[in-house]
UniProtKB/TrEMBL annotation:
GO terms of biological process kind: ribosome disassembly
GO terms for cellular component: cytosol; membrane
Matches recorded under HAMAP family: IF_3 (MF_00080)
Family: Belongs to the IF-3 family.
Entry keyword Cytoplasm: yes
Name listed for the protein in its UniProt record: Translation initiation factor IF-3
Positions of the Translation initiation factor 3 N-terminal domain: 13-79
Function description: IF-3 binds to the 30S ribosomal subunit and shifts the equilibrium between 70S ribosomes and their 50S and 30S subunits in favor of the free subunits, thus enhancing the availability of 30S subunits on which protein synthesis initiation begins.
Alphabetical UniProt keywords: Cytoplasm, Initiation factor, Protein biosynthesis
Residues in Translation initiation factor 3 C-terminal domain copies: 88-172
InterPro entries named in the record: T_IF-3_C_sf, T_IF-3_N_sf, Translation_initiation_fac_3, Translation_initiation_fac_3_C, Translation_initiation_fac_3_N
Subunit structure as annotated in this protein's UniProt entry: Monomer.
Length: 172
């Protein structure tokens, strides 16, 4: 049975390369040396030999405190996660024979969602005999597309799914 794989950078005896390029705690390049010799030097200073660039030839290692290095990396990842913006899909439902005031209210919402950086799914639901006049629904979705032309782009062009016509808009 194998031991569990540790996440994070390899350090000290986990480094698999025979020779490594070494950078000391002050950022000075000590050159290429044998891994065992570099580990001994790092331990002499009270630090670990941490692999910072494993894909280089030879791998680049630095004299660091592993615990502090992991802690800093975790803090950096948390800060990045905190600042990232998730993009939601907001849905606006309409009917083919929508009145102008109702249309204006729906479009205000669409513009607000797009300004917030969200995608907008416009759902046009047909009832009963409205299915016979799908061109009215297509005209309405084209009108929506023209009204948001400056702020949004059409990500999914209008398509019919059963009794609904769908279109997805995304911010430019």
């Amino acid at each position: 049975m194998q031991p569990p794989v540790k996440s994070g950078p390899r350090y000290d005896n986990m480094i698999q390369s025979d020779k490594v390029r070494v950078i000391d705690e002050n950022g000075e390049n000590l050159g290429v040396m044998y891994t065992n010799e570099a580990i001994d030097q790092a331990n002499g200073v009270g630090l670990n030999l941490v692999e910072v660039s494993p894909n280089a030839d030879p791998p680049v290692c630095k004299f660091l405190d592993v615990g502090k290095f992991r802690y800093e990396a975790q803090k950096k990842a948390n800060a990045a996660r905190k600042t990232q913006k998730t993009q939601d899909i907001k849905e606006v439902k309409m009917r083919p024979n929508i009145d102008t005031h109702d249309y204006d209210v729906k479009m205000r919402n669409v513009n607000k969602f797009i300004d917030n950086g969200d995608k907008v799914k416009i759902t046009l639901r047909f009832r009963g005999r409205e299915m016979a006049h799908q061109e009215l629904g297509m005209d309405l979705l084209n009108r929506v597309r023209d009204d948001v032309e400056e702020t949004a782009k059409v990500e999914a062009f209008p398509r019919l799914e059963g009794r609904q016509m769908l279109m997805v808009l995304a911010p430019k």
